[in-house]
Amino acid sequence: ASILILNGPNLNLLGTRQPEVYGATTLQDIEDMCEAHGRALGVGIVCKQSNHEGELIDAIHDAKGDHDGIVLNAGAYTHTSVALMDAISSVALPVIELHLSNIHAREEFRHKSFIAPVAIGQICGFGATGYRLAIEAMVDHIR
Ligand code: DQA
User: Which atom of ligand 1 is nearest to the CA of 73?
Assistant: First the structure.
């Protein structure tokens, strides 16, 4: 089995971006941790990041056939993108919505998620640990 870890806008800046909100862990650290966790669980992990909505949509389309599920941190597009929601609906692949921060404890505009209705579930508030939790949940879901 193979899981795509897809990170959206501004997540390339993790480590220096508002560390009080998102922690000191870099995206590279998170991707290394995901790959190590995948190896431990016997599942393939591929990591991608883009700041561009259309590239994230292409990555979701292209995941079909190559991967069995997607862990998606869509960043701010979570709260705005009908197009990402439609892309998920258009590929029959399980998606887990992930956020480092607890979006429900933050500004009102972060409470709305276009991803949640088309995801199998949401993990938020656990920082980088959330990626590990999401990989475990996806492996259980796939198997
Ligand atoms: C985020 C939460 C979003 O509201 C925000 O726009 C991000 C990061 C998170 O991981 O906590 O870019 O998805």
Answer: 13
Pocket lining: 73 vs ligand 1, CB cutoff 6 Å: yes
ipTM, 2 dp: 0.99
pTM, two decimal places:
0.97
CB 132 within 8 A of CB 37: yes
Residue partners of 58: CB distance under 8 A and separation at least 6: none
Model pLDDT for residues 47-69, shown as the tens digit of each residue: 999 999 999 999 999 999 999 99
Token pair for residue 128?
A: 């980088």
Residue 23: CB atoms within 10 Å: 18
Residue 131 falls in the annotated catalytic set:
no
Q: What's the Rg (C-alpha) of the chain?
A: 14
Domains of the chain, with CATH numbers?
2-142 (3.40.50.9100)
CA atoms within 13 A on the CB side of 9: 13
